[in-house]
Design a protein that fits this description.
Two copies of one chain form a homodimer. Chain A is of the alpha+beta class. The first copy, chain A, contains 14 helices and 25 strands. Chain A has an eleven-stranded mixed beta sheet, sandwiched between helices. In chain A, strands 16-15-17-18-19 form a five-stranded mixed beta sheet, with helices on both faces. A three-stranded antiparallel beta sheet of chain A has the order 4-6-5. The longest helix of chain A is centred in the C-terminal third of the chain and has 26 residues, at 386-411.
Chain lengths: 487, 487
């Protein structure tokens, strides 16, 4: 709704150093990404610019899911309440967050329906109908949908009562195959996060305390935000036979024996947009990696006199056409009722990676001015090489954003060897990842959380074993885990 | 879930002449399009093949919406109950069908939330926040979402308690502009239906009785199914200032006066898939127009001896690659554990427009056998020209399906000049469209519906005025309307 800004100077964004939470909300507001729904507790409206980013995320992920053999389907929004109770851990985990439909069509329902918080149960029910033989396996399904979890504390994109996501659900003949699937999709998520979102992630295993309610093992990708807090960006669960047993999903194996299937589920959500914001954006607003920018390049014609106008617009338009032919997404902002400075500000706040300014002087010199959103760098480029330069910049900016984020993460990752050191680090303004030994016990994990608000984000997959001692109890530990305060 | 069929002969489809309703359900089952959810009243699961068709519908429509200047956004699933009551006709129309969330997060809600049956009210609320000046207009928004209407009688795709759809919502400065938008989107729907679905439609105006609850005027596209019943395939509503007034959506016009906006809304849903089925399919199952077929061409290699296998597969694979390079969607069915006859049957039931058979004899003759799903025609084509032929066939089949459907509609459209004639025609096995004069009164419309189960589908836009007399009362009428029994 750019139109809202028309008569006023664009609003400023609170600097991160002053108030990081307010900065986050300001970036969302000024980027026209979303706004709180207010009248529907904890929900938000995803505005066109925010939704366009979600569409780019969807398209890219959807192709990766299909390339790995998954098919999309759609299951009901409503789930009979009794379904959730069939898996004991599952209902225990989700019960505080459920929204429940108790009457419909003017009548009290005999059995209430839960609005899906996730779909393992209803999909388990259908898998039991669809699977009979080992030849029906693997069954590889994905669903794009809205889900509802009634959260106490909400924050736009990161945690909302309703959110949009995808949930993959697969069934396999052996545990070996379902573990392979769980890890394959974790890799898909990690590659997407790093290659497309330019957001470095750690792949790891969740602890018992942090795992998905109903899973044997939960895997995750964890990212670090600019303020040194962690964000769980995606999860992939080895469900074992838990839902298979709860919903009687059996198949006849090659020897004719009836066996329960082995299942997985995995999901990412609109939360990714929150991660995207807090990975790249700055005090001027949103910064988007080129691969997810709905508009990659904005062209702003600059003229004072009426006779300059036609020529500048024609020049701008010719360039826009060439850029589009190169496959770039371009917006020519030819609005008459705004000054260039206002437009600069607006598109900066919306995160457009590259701005091109074209004025009479530039045309006379046969050049254009290119400004990078991420670094603020200004380049003077000959008109003839502008298209090539923009194309190169898309690749360069994507790479630079990733490297910058990776450096921030590395600079804020600390090897911790004592609880005193832990407590000192966690209280710093940018606490970061605290990598330390832990005795593997729930009680220790709970004590640390209680005393420091830090949780175990994961036990990383890609780091070697490293014998050491738990920072609390001194008990032996074979591997360091990653602690952090988290969103 | 083709896998289900593995060990058994594919199930047969009830012939249309025997039981049209059962035929419809059989086509859906054998085409693996969907199945009833049973445990969630009136809901269905959209299976991968059905969902793939919906994705093709979405992609094509979404481009048309964007090309006409609309942006996608997402609004909350839940709507405060009081919102629906702000527009009197709206709540009266929707109240019998609402599903209501009364507790969430373990607590009774102070105000229940309605699960959206449509989003005019919640979007009206946000429009009032976003619109201030004439420069904010037009505001052109679309949403892809699920909606819930608790229907008493449901039928897969055609009427389900939950369904998927898109809903466009726009706001304009003048009634002239909002009417133009309403008709523009009606045209988009009509073009999509005819060009992509190969389903001829009549564009028309709904009567007061049949219009959307809360609209000034509802426009629709109406299609005729093979059994001579009508299907409302899409609607576009001129909402006037009804929701603008209910939600206080005002703008300052160019003279500085505050005015209510003029709004439109328009939608199509997964119901289109029901229309697609009943327009083209036959007693062998689904028939899909090439533009909506997830798989356009299936290649079936035929071999008996092991030494024939490698050669046939290689030949098939080479052809598949060439077809894909041409931009066609191809499946090479190289499954070992099925006989060719079984595969023929399966892909026919799934509606794949063209099948290519390749056996040792064909290869020896340097030819392939091509079979059209729609006509059953078999063509023997030289290998060298197979790609070109397939490409031509896509265009030809698309065209032929449309012409065939148009002929069926025209053959079953009857000019009716007396109520006796009307009653005789409506009782025929294929009643069709009854085009006749009506006095424009609700009472007459109600009497005809009561006595014949026929409703006024629309007053067509593209037919000239034609002075005549109401078939019931003899009162003067300026235009014939279209009656039919409808889904």
């Amino acid at each position: 709704m750019a139109q809202n800004l028309q008569e006023s100077t664009p609003q400023k964004i609170t600097p991160r150093s002053e108030n990081y939470s307010q900065w986050y909300l300001d970036v969302i507001r000024q980027g026209s990404l979303a706004e709180p729904a207010e009248v529907v507790k904890g929900c938000m409206v995803i505005k066109p610019h925010g939704y366009a980013i979600w569409e780019k995320i969807q398209q890219n992920l959807d192709k990766r899911f299909k390339d790995t053999g998954h098919e999309n389907a759609y299951f009901p929004l409503f789930i009979p309440e009794s379904f959730l109770k069939k898996e004991a851990e599952h209902i225990e985990g989700f019960s505080p967050e459920l929204a429940v439909v108790t009457y419909a069509g003017g009548k009290q329902l005999e059995e209430p329906y839960v609005v899906r918080p996730t779909s393992e149960t209803i999909i388990g029910y259908f898998f039991s109908k669809w699977i009979g033989s080992h030849r029906d396996l693997p069954l590889l399904i994905n669903q794009w949908a809205n889900v509802v979890r009634w959260e106490l504390r909400t924050r736009m994109f990161l945690r909302t009562s309703e959110f949009l996501w995808q949930e993959g659900h697969t069934a396999h003949a052996t545990h070996e195959e379902s573990i392979a699937e769980t890890l394959r999709m974790l890799d898909v998520y990690a590659q997407f996060a790093e290659e497309v979102m330019a957001m470095p992630v750690i792949k790891g295993v969740k602890t018992e305390t942090e795992k998905f309610a109903g899973a044997l093992t939960s895997y995750c990708i964890e990212a670090m935000m600019q303020d040194g807090k962690a964000l769980q960006a995606g999860t992939s669960h080895d469900l074992g036979q838990n839902f298979g047993k709860a919903f009687d999903v059996k198949f006849q194996d090659q020897s004719g024996q009836l066996q329960y299937v082995w299942q997985t589920s995995w999901g990412v959500s609109t939360r990714l947009i929150g991660g995207l914001i807090m990975t790249h954006s700055d005090d001027n607003g949103l910064v988007l990696p080129p691969k997810l920018a709905p508009i990659q390049i904005v062209i702003i014609p600059i003229y004072r006199k009426e006779e300059e106008k036609a020529q500048t617009l024609e020049f701008s338009n010719t360039l826009a056409v060439s850029l589009k032919e190169k496959g770039l997404s371009v917006k020519l902002d030819a609005r008459d009722n705004y000054k260039p400075g206002f437009k600069f500000f607006e598109w900066e706040q919306k995160g457009v990676p590259v701005r091109i300014e074209i004025g009479p002087k530039d045309m006379a010199n046969n050049q254009v001015v290119i400004k990078r959103r991420d670094t603020g760098e200004k380049l003077f480029v000959s008109s003839a090489s502008a298209v090539e330069k923009c194309n190169d910049l898309m690749i360069q900016i994507q790479k630079d954003l990733f490297e910058k984020a990776k450096k921030l993460r590395n600079d804020n990752t600390h090897i911790i060897n004592s609880y005193d050191q832990f407590k000192e680090q966690i209280e710093k303004p940018t606490p970061g990842f605290l990598v330390c030994h832990w005795n593997g016990k729930k009680e220790t994990e709970a004590k640390i959380k209680e005393e420091t608000k830090a949780t175990i984000r994961c036990s990383p997959l890609d780091t070697p074993d490293d014998n050491g001692k738990c920072i609390i109890t001194g008990e032996p530990s074979k591997k360091r885990v990653v602690f952090a305060r988290a969103y």
